[in-house]
Give the backbone structure.
Amino acid sequence: MSVAPWRSALENALNFSHSLPESRYFQLATVTPEGNPANRTVVFRGFCQDSDNLQVVTDARSEKVFHLQQTPKAEICWYFSQSREQFRLSGHISLITAEMSQFSTVRNQVWEQLSYQTRLQFFWPYPKRKRSKPETAFNSPPPAMETPPETFVVIIFSPYQVDHLQLKGNPQNRYLYWLEESGNWEWIEVNP
């Protein structure tokens, strides 16, 4: 598989900023059923094997899952302060849920890469509901953590358009990439 032409620039920004924990975070924007934008910060969990698709994890009970089930498109905005670069990626979304047994291997592999503390969050009380009391609901030991619970979802983001802006330099540089129907990526350098 050949990698998309934008991917090496993104990987370079990630490598250059690897010492900054915040470089693993980006903003993921979805659309509510009412047509309103909804934006939140998520953690990059790597690229899917043999593809340019990005992985994110979330709780099946979260609003973003409901939004993505209604409109399976999203946009990522990712800024790297160290290299002063911004990547905006538009893409299609696939959700890998507990019901999708054909993708259980992918789901299990992503689960195994998570820290204990991250895994524990999928056993917490329902997100965005009135705070649970007592606080022990957030740190009581789960029944088993070897396999992902029903609440664990892997989001696969498949880009079809990328806008890469390099803010260093005078003039600054900007590149637009888009995925053709043939499956090939095209790109052009544009004014910043």
Remarks:
- The chain has a mean pLDDT of 93.
- Residues 7-16 form the longest helix (10 residues).
- Helices lie at 7-16, 63-70, 104-112, 116-121.
- The CA atoms of residues 68 and 74 lie 8 Å apart.
